[in-house]
Amino acid sequence: MTTADPSAPALVVLHGGELPPGRERIDRHPGLSEVRYATAEQLTEALPGARILLVWDLFTEALTAAWDTAGSLEWVHAATTGVDNLMFPGLVESDVAVTNSRGVFEGPIAETVLGLVLSFAKDLHGSRDLQRSHTWKWRESERVQGRTALVVGTGPIGRAIARMLTAAGLEVTGAGRTPRTGDPDFGTVVSADPGEPGGIGDALGDADYAVVAAPLTDATRGLFDARLLARMKPTARLINVARGPIVVEEDLVRALRDGTIAGAGLDVFEAEPLPDSSPLWDLPQAVVLPHMSGDVVGWKDELVRVFLDNLDRRLRGEEPRNLVDKARGYPRG
């Protein structure tokens, strides 16, 4: 929709077929000269002259292929927390600013992690399976209070998880880039480098739950492989609410089958949707979620609100929120 000011920036909304809710809030924004909606196939034609790109197609890599036509682009906003799909060399090395939607998903994801912890401790998923077969099987469950959790990733999502698990009575430690003590949410943070003495490898040996909440970067891709999984207790469970490729799926399947670890709660996978052929569907120790840990009623409206808030800030010449450090692949702070 064109406004009275032709010098205002043009916006492209990259979508996968589903448009943002209440799109009139975007279409009628007085600070935009034009709003173009494009699918991945249409992006190359839509980008020329556009200064802003809203990536509403959450996991697309279409911008990589269309980058040669993005000569006017100044700002890319991702309607996600993870921006690994945007961290290709052309964009990383350019002057184009990238922001994400930090602040939308932290609480819901933390609630999902707590739900998975409770499900494992109280065998809720096992009870559901027994109910379906009309089987009355008494057994003892585990306490949550006093158990230990290692949260890998000390950003806002990891911190929300730490606070939620601490409130439930777990003792929480973090693993991140910078080891430290006295952290307000984790207490102790160990190095996430598996080769570092006293780091994540040693900490896993004490954890009842290992929660993956780190961004997907070169340093975290394949982090949880057979060697790191072998450092976990045989009674421990792995929970991944970050990105699938952080965990080597083949190694995880083997660890579950061999009893190296006791269970896995998985919201993300190497390939999504999870293929029908994946053994994870049928492993009784695995809980499979369809990448929904952060998606609660109203989340898409909140994503639009975050984008419009940053758009207004940009048009006023203010620093945008959630500015991504492209060298790291996530916002600082």
Summarize the structure.
27% of the residues lie in helices and 18% in strands. It is of the alpha/beta class and 333 residues long. The two termini are 36 Å apart.
Question: How would you characterize this protein structure?
Answer:
This protein has 333 residues and is of the alpha/beta class. It folds into two domains: 10-104 and 297-331, NAD(P)-binding Rossmann-like Domain (Rossmann fold, 3-Layer(aba) Sandwich), CATH 3.40.50; 106-288, 3-Layer(aba) Sandwich (Rossmann fold). It contains eleven helices and 15 strands. It has helices spanning 24-27, 43-46, 62-66, 89-92, 106-122, 124-132, 156-167, 200-204, 226-229, 249-258, 299-315; strands at residues 10-14, 34-38, 52-55, 75-78, 97-99, 148-152, 171-176, 180-183, 187-191, 209-212, 237-240, 263-266, 286-288, 324-325, 330-331. The strands form three sheets. Strands 8-9-7-6-10-11-12-13 form an eight-stranded mixed β-sheet. A five-stranded parallel β-sheet has the order 2-1-3-4-5, with no helix packed on it. A two-stranded antiparallel ribbon has the order 14-15. Helix 5 crosses helix 7 (156-167). The longest helix is centred in the middle third of the chain and has 17 residues, at 106-122. The chain is elongated. The protein starts with 9 loop residues before the first strand and ends with a strand. This is D-2-hydroxyacid dehydrogenase. Keywords: NAD, Oxidoreductase.
Please tag this protein with its features:
11 helices; Rossmann fold; elongated; 5-stranded parallel β-sheet; 18% strand; 8-stranded mixed β-sheet; 333 residues; alpha/beta
